[in-house]
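pasting for the record
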Amino acid sequence: MKRKCLLILVMVAFVLTGCWDSVELNDIAIVTGMAIDPGEDKKYRLTLEYMNPANFSKTSSQQGAPVSTMVQEGNSIADLAGKVNVGASRQLVFSHTRVLFINEKIAEEGILGFLDGLERSAPFRNDFNILITKSHKAEDYVKINNPLEKVPSLKLQKQAKSFAEGWGGDPKVVLSDFIDALISKGRNPVTNTVVLKGDPEKGSKQESNMSNGREALILFDGLAVFDNEKLAGYLSLDDSRNYMWTQDLKQTTLTFPCHDHGDSAKEKQYVNVRVPNSRTKMETYYRNEQPVLKVNIYTEAQIIETQCSDDLTKIDTFKKLEKNAEKYIEESVGRTISKTQKEYGVDIFGFGEALYRQDYKKFKDVEDDWNKEFARAEVVVSAKVQIRRAGTKSKSFLTELSDGMEE
């Protein structure tokens, strides 16, 4: 009996060996970036950036461009993904796509037409960054070389991460986040915008990496505000950080005036603090039929630079700086919310979702007209800042210089 069982197991092992759908690495090309522009003859013009594997080999790296691009026009994502291989000798793999560039003209017309295809199609993951391109064609952005990063789209992904960690202005919007906001009754989508500085034709050439200066450079430029599926307008880079304050900003560097001396920004003196973390609580309620949007921000900070001569060994100095920081945050965040109300009239912050959680019955009453309610709402921003440390040195030499001059 044991011999029969063993024989059956051996026979089954022969049947189950191998993979019926296996694909050799030499037969695939990994797509890292996509760009969508208006087509000349069809609805969309799709540009794909895919890696040249031989250029990334540790043992025998070859000369030539590390990435290649391919362009195809079609009326849908499924149509484009199906026939884009007409010019490629390898099977294209989309599961490692890192960035999707969307031309602002496409965004203004509406992007539902291809978002469904990206979400529904199995080859695509939903964790790639969505970026709206301004001024130049989206396809130019997947061709810009950089001496530190061989793959333009991977460079942009790392740039977004570095931007978020250093200044905090990146909302990290991926496909799933965008669609969640799109179908929400209490929030409208936002995503980052990028601009191209320089000459894209020169920046796309391999020789540009030999130059000390950059022929072309991609920069983050703020936020794109959407009214449902269509691009409504833009918010500045400063507004993008103010937006992030309402979304539990992780970390940033904050610069605010030490005091009220000086009329212009150049005449004022400033102190810089590093914010390692912050917490935000949003409240939405009605007071006498007037919607009220309240943002409570709590953050800790440490001083990393000061232009002021105030004595940092005194607790009163810390209290004064904390009040100045709170005032600066409250005014900045309040200004961005009010600007969004007046210029676009759409809730990108999620105040409607807060009302849904806090007063479901009231939200159902105003659900269909929430953006109108948002636009007429009163805004209240409250910040609480605690400065824990003054860096590696408590007393600045500026204080000693000031004390010497007074004597």
